[in-house]
Design a protein that fits this description.
There is one protein chain. This protein is an all-alpha fold and 285 residues long. It has 13 helices and no strands. It is globular. The two termini are 48 Å apart.
């Protein structure tokens, strides 16, 4: 009887595990097939795109689409602009949020609760609501149609979210560690730099990744604040390729692959930090 109950439990456990794995496999397949089709189309000739029998493997694979996109269009310039904007947003945003999150985690001061509530409230409104106010502010400082204007605009969204996330992470690091360092003669800034930040590396990596991806893929502000073709970023440049170079799905797919590859590589290297950082920032404190 005991063996029967044990076998039943094992069978139920196996069925649950199989159901979970099948669900995850189906979800992964659903997510990866569009990217595989995008990748396949980027290597096809224009006449091979629309056929009666769709083929995942290109019948006549070619690199001509990539050669055209990289040599005959502004995509390399857009790539450089996006890289500058995303990198600057990640560096500036993480530097500011690490200091702000540390202050909120360690110090008690008047208005702290109100400041934290204000940071949280900014996440409740859609980005489009900030479009007109940010445009007016950037125009008054001469930052319209410039990469610096985009960096400032993106930082306004990176800082509130990453501050909340890093505060939760800093709350989970014992204050005794930095206090012991300060007893030994280290300043608070030195204790932060040499002890707290290394321990908070997963949280910092998550903040960097979030800020970089926001600057890399954002579209609304980029098309509203930048009108000059030489300062456009990749999402806007690719969206306007139809009007500038004519409709060609093979060129569009090649450009889309160029946009996607850096993000895939970044996720591959930082995914463990992303999971650890988001989890710690969400449950601690």
């Amino acid at each position: 009887m005991a063996m029967t109950a044990r076998a039943r439990r094992r069978r139920i456990g196996f069925l649950r595990s199989a159901a979970v794995h099948l669900t995850l496999s189906a979800t992964m397949l659903l997510l990866i097939v569009p990217f595989l089709w995008l990748l396949s189309t980027s290597f096809k000739l224009p006449e091979d795109v629309f056929t009666k029998t769709p083929a995942m493997i290109p019948p006549n694979p070619t690199f001509a689409n990539y050669a055209y996109v990289l040599t005959e269009t502004m995509v390399p310039r857009y790539f450089l602009n996006s890289l500058v904007v995303a990198s600057a947003t990640a560096i500036i945003g993480t530097a500011i949020t690490s200091l702000a999150a540390y202050a909120l985690s360690r110090f008690q001061f008047r208005g702290k609760l109100g400041y934290m509530t204000m940071l949280l409230a900014t996440q409740m409104f859609p980005a489009a609501l900030f479009l007109a106010p940010l445009y007016i502010v950037l125009r008054s400082y001469g930052l319209i149609n410039s990469l610096l204007g985009l960096i400032v605009a993106y930082s306004t969204f990176v800082i509130p979210f990453c501050t909340w996330m890093l505060k939760g992470y800093f709350d989970g690091i014992p204050a005794d560690l930095e206090e012991a360092a300060m007893v030994d003669g280290a300043s608070r800034l030195a204790a932060l730099r040499q002890i707290i930040l290394p321990l908070a590396a997963p949280g910092l990596a998550t903040a960097v990744l979030f800020a970089f991806l926001l600057g890399w893929q954002e579209f609304l502000f980029a098309i509203a604040f930048v009108q000059s073709d030489q300062w456009r970023t990749l999402p806007v440049g690719i969206a306007l390729m139809d009007s500038m170079y004519g409709v060609s799905y093979t060129y569009l797919m090649a450009a889309a692959v160029i946009v996607t590859i850096p993000v895939v590589i970044l996720f591959a290297f930082l995914q463990r930090y992303l999971i650890r950082g988001l989890t710690a920032g969400a449950v601690k404190g």
